Amino acid sequence: MKARDNPFSAGRTESLSYRHNGMSKNGLLLKFRQLDYKAAIIGPKGSGKTTLLEELKRGLEDNGFIIHCVFVNDEKPLSKDARKNLFARLKKGDIVILDGADLLSKQEWRRFKSKIVKCAGGLLITSHRQDLLATLIECSTSPELFSELASHLAVGESHPSEELLNKIYAEHKGNIRNCFRHLYDMYADKQPAVNK
Amino acid sequence: MKMGSLDIKLSDNRTAFKPCEKISGRAEWQLENNPEALELSLFWQTEGKGTKDSGIAETIRFDNPGSVGSRIFSLRLPSGPYSFSGKLISIIWNLELAEAKGKDAIQKSIIISPTEKEIVCTDLISDSEEEGHKNSFLKFTGKFKFSSHRF
Amino acid sequence: MVSIIRKNAKEAKKGRVIGLVFFGIFAVVGSVMSYAMSIRPAAKVIMAGNWTQAACRILSAEVESHRGDDSTTYKIKIVYQYEYNGSIYKSDRYDFMNMSSSGYKRKAEVVRKYQQEKKPVCFVNPQNPSEAVLKRGFHSGFFWALFPLPFAGIGIAGFVYIIRNWSKQKSGGKDWLPSPQPAGAEKRISFSSMPSGPVVLRSKSPWARLVFSMAIGAFWNGTLSFFLFDIVKEWQLGAWGLLRTLFFVPFAVIGIILIALFFICFLAMFNPRPILTLSSASVPLGGTAYLNWRFRGRTNMIRHLRILLKGIEAARYRRGTDTCTDENTFFQMEILSTQDKREIAFGEAGLVIPGDSMHSFEAENNKVIWEVEVQGVIDSWPDVQEKFKLTVTPAGME
Questions:
Q1: How many of the other CB atoms lie within 10 Å of CB of C322?
Q2: CA angle C166, C169, C174 (to 5 degrees)
Q3: Which chain C residues are within 8 Å of A77, Cβ to Cβ?
Q4: C286 and C375, same domain (yes or no)
Q5: Are residues C381 and C303 in the same domain?
Q6: Is the pTM of this model over 0.80?
Q7: Could you report the per-residue pLDDT of C153-169, keeping only the tens digit for each?
Q8: For residue A76, what is the DSSP state?
Q9: Residue from B36, B41, B43, B49 whose CB has the most chain C CBs within 10 Å, to mutate
Q10: Which domains occur in chain A, in start order?
Q11: Domain limits for position C307
Q12: pLDDT digits over A134-166, tens only?
């Protein structure tokens, strides 16, 4: 199968909207306001934190906030100069979005947080841990959610069976991002374990 | 054309071209506002298992286009990258007509390759030991001077 | 879409600048620390091999303590007097490291030994007799000298990597085409200025693998040694905890694997190294090229040599806190497979790049790579395994 036709390509999986279970997007934005615009989206890897973060970012922009995004991962640490550039641009009322806050060391986080509190209007982070900021929402996954998303993506293609999806979900311990990458490989190799 | 729409029409309705070929067409628009400028861009982007990459090859700017109008355009396609699809990566070429500082845009996919077809490499091409030397004339062709210990 | 592309390009450049500064700081600080803690002391130890032995008198000997935020560290402080060429000198240098560190007991033993020593000796620099040392050789304390080396290595490697990939060749909008980079190229050469003659292909240096395995191994085992030290102390006192010991076992196993990996990389350093020459820096699709191979080192070690031409897609995905890269080989052609010792030692082959395939392509996250892979099977030794990138251009490209 060609990469562009694979239903589980990066572009397609990243364009999935967050499946709200409980609180809607507006509800979350209201809660974020009640938490004085300082909160964390927590959850394990591949549970949709970044997806929800992007959705909330759009919502905040629609409400007139100026958003500054910072992205930290294992290959891209938060350098001193990146911090300096960010702080130079910040104005009171702006909101900083930090994806991967728990990759900062304790000292880095303390300094970053105190600077944001002084210079900006708010901070929204993603983290695997609960101890950094007040919890806005805890993201989680389920086999049913994975099945719903996989079926949504595989529209028009042969659908993977429920049994197969449950097996993949269990193998990747609920990390839906890795589950999608697994399905990508299966579709790319045209493996026979998919059902029409 | 409906109100608030953009369109790109390519000559002869072609959507597949050779590298370095000149392509021409017409950009048309019927908008509700009067934009400062419209831009026609030729760009490539990747799709597949990796994070998206993209690159702009050329941009043509139409200043003061008015809310309704059309312009003929002509541009020379680059030598590459070819339109390509493997298992992990696809490279897709698009023409995009968009308001310079707005959100409205339309895209049209085209193919750029010497065969005017997407290069497809989804299956491994592996020469066996017998066939391998079809594409590698390793010291067995009489015409080939093999500069080694054999001489 | 296009506005996003322009914004990403600007941010990518900013990112590279930030990366340069980050790795630059690491490189500078790591290098300064390496010089002060490793290179300078090691150089002094080597030079002190020629210093003259002289009798000395111990004036005072004690263990100095330094109270820090979290713990107390100790340092050997011995003041001694010696005579050289009729002049009397005083010194307090014990060795060329003499850092303050934890571990009082061993330092106290050293001090006690010098307090009881009847005929202590020191070593005097004949070029500068005011310089002397009590203990002039390498010892286990020099283990700490290795500490800043990985930081310097990471900093320098990161800095060099960003510089080398900084400016993609830009003529005619060919940012996506990797510049051909033959061995010995001082800087990134633009595609259009590349000479058309034969070029020696560059492979990844085995030093990089060795340094990397050393850095990881040193860091992992260095950290683990603190815990191992505690556990051994507990065993000696008969107060060892089974659970604690069992918990430590998997980490110790990883540490042993890393040491083994380092040795394999070290042994591979002595492998014969292939030198490949290609008839031109880049080859167009459907074009012909001549590949010449020879080896530096003992080629008679190689029992079986294979040379392959491969086309590979590489896609990197970054989302959340993770990055993963996948590869897929879409083309493979065997250029050579031989056990003939003479053919292994050197030879030449012509090859035709398939005209209906895909040319080289390089973007930030997605690449199409063409490479020549050299596989040399060596019995009871790490195999030769090196890859040489080549640039395959679109057909008819000038």
A1: 16
A2: 125
A3: 22
A4: yes
A5: yes
A6: no
A7: 777 777 776 676 665 44
A8: B
A9: B49
A10: 3-16+141-195 (no CATH), 35-138 (3.40.50.300)
A11: 176-186+197-208+272-393
A12: 999 999 999 999 999 999 998 776 888 899 999
